[in-house]
# Entry
Amino acid sequence: MKNITFASTNQNKFLEVQSILSTRSITVDFSQRHLVEIQSDSLKEIAGEKAKTAFAKVGRPVIVEDDGLFIDSLAGFPGPYSSFVFKTIGNDGILKLLAGSAKRSAYFSSVIAFYNGIILSISDGRVDGRISDRITECDWGYDPIFVPNGTDLTFAELKKSKNEYSHRKRALEKFAQWYLKL
Ligand code: IMP
# Structure
């Protein structure tokens, strides 16, 4: 068994990270804290800097995550600004922006950044899908409006099976493969 610390404010993310990495024999501690993010168009750059900030605060090897929801007909909006957009216009606002639009394709991207004071390692994952035309029940971010390809259910409706499809699962699988050899 290997261990790693996950630093984030977000308890939902931690529960998913813990559940996914446990299947790869990696236990996860949670360091629940707010980490200042740099502003950038690149999730990889944001996550890399966030991992260095987290390591400085936590004092042991850490992983952090940065995500974005990229909507094709909105030229990739909200992308790296997904957190701000969720807090401001939310899922209602996204559905309004897409009202009457037949093109609803979108993808979720996740970047996991590891830092131990010497090595910075970045792993990414992506899931393609579409934005639903209604909001299903759930209070976890964009889960109520994102439908991954291969199903007609939103992430929220998929419940635990979300992890079979998710961007986070794909990024963490790559991270685990690398970390288990470190
Ligand atoms: P951040 O990486 O914490 O900045 O997340 C960006 C935004 O995307 C936040 O508003 C999150 O709530 C949302 N988000 C990230 N991953 C997911 C997910 O798996 N489901 C739903 N919303 C997500």
Remarks:
- The pocket of inosinic acid is lined by residues 10, 65-67, 69, 82-83, 86, 140-143, 155, 166, 168 (CB under 6 Å).
